[in-house]
Amino acid sequence: QASIVVLVSGNGSNLQTILDQCEQGSINGKVTAVFSNKSTAYGLERAQQAGVDAISLAQGDFADRAAFDAELMTQIDQYQPDLIVLAGYMRILSDNFVQHYAGKMLNIHPSLLPKYPGLDTHQRAMDNGDKEHGASVHFVTPELDAGPVILQAKVPVFTEDDIEELSSRVHTQEHMIYPMVIQWFCAGRLAMTNGKAVLDGEELAESGH
Ligand code: GAR
């Protein structure tokens, strides 16, 4: 069974679907630890409720990003992870950290990448009058939100939407696609090869890049 380490900063609804699907056996893996850079993240509580180690590191205890990430890496590696899952982890990771987990770190981002890397994606989609929006699961590479896309889910944007409605529509899709991709990885069907996402031996087309 794959050892999965999840990083969160907040609510952890994606974490919850991953915990549930590991429990049910639809993901052939086990969440061995959840780390947060915020001690108040509700995701930590979800981990504890599932009997999973929940650890928070405070940025203020470290001189700089490199020191923080080095400690995070040391602690994560004690769980001998096969896969690192970023699930609403809102802190930029240093190149060193990303390279250490190259090909085995996934992120979910609330936009149809390459559109809207970074923050405030729902607001930006609405401000631009986009008719569709969504979420993307991708391998993490040093450039922010620019790693190869594995799977996307699209949702419509309605003119009467507010940000809560739109973000909850996206969240619902995230809860479908993230566990699916994680299971692909755990089943050995998914890899990053030469900077491309490969599923069952076939290169996945880069949408829009
Ligand atoms: C999700 O919508 C995820 O796509 C986003 O944070 C939310 C976390 O929700 N991630 C990012 O913006 C990463 N830059 P959750 O805590 O309920 O899973």
TrEMBL record:
InterPro entries listed in its UniProt record: Formyl_transf_N (IPR002376), Formyl_transf_N_sf (IPR036477), GART (IPR004607)
A biological process from GO: 'de novo' IMP biosynthetic process
NCBIfam families the UniProt entry points to: PurN
A GO CC annotation given for this chain: cytosol
Catalysed conversion reaction: N(1)-(5-phospho-beta-D-ribosyl)glycinamide + (6R)-10-formyltetrahydrofolate = N(2)-formyl-N(1)-(5-phospho-beta-D-ribosyl)glycinamide + (6S)-5,6,7,8-tetrahydrofolate + H(+)
Residues binding (6R)-10-formyltetrahydrofolate: R65, M90, R91, I92, L93, N107
Record's protein name: Phosphoribosylglycinamide formyltransferase
The Formyl transferase N-terminal domain, residue ranges: 4-182
Pfam families: Formyl_trans_N
Protein family (similarity comment): Belongs to the GART family.
Residues forming the catalytic site: H109
Gene Ontology MF terms: phosphoribosylglycinamide formyltransferase activity
Free-text function comment from the UniProt entry: Catalyzes the transfer of a formyl group from 10-formyltetrahydrofolate to 5-phospho-ribosyl-glycinamide (GAR), producing 5-phospho-ribosyl-N-formylglycinamide (FGAR) and tetrahydrofolate.
Enzyme Commission identifier(s): 2.1.2.2
Keyword tags: Purine biosynthesis, Transferase
Amino-acid positions noted as binding N(1)-(5-phospho-beta-D-ribosyl)glycinamide in the UniProt annotation, renumbered to this chain: G12, S13, N14
Domain of life: Bacteria
PANTHER family: PHOSPHORIBOSYLGLYCINAMIDE FORMYLTRANSFERASE
Site entry (Raises pKa of active site His), positions: D145
Pathway participation: Purine metabolism; IMP biosynthesis via de novo pathway; N(2)-formyl-N(1)-(5-phospho-D-ribosyl)glycinamide from N(1)-(5-phospho-D-ribosyl)glycinamide (10-formyl THF route): step 1/1
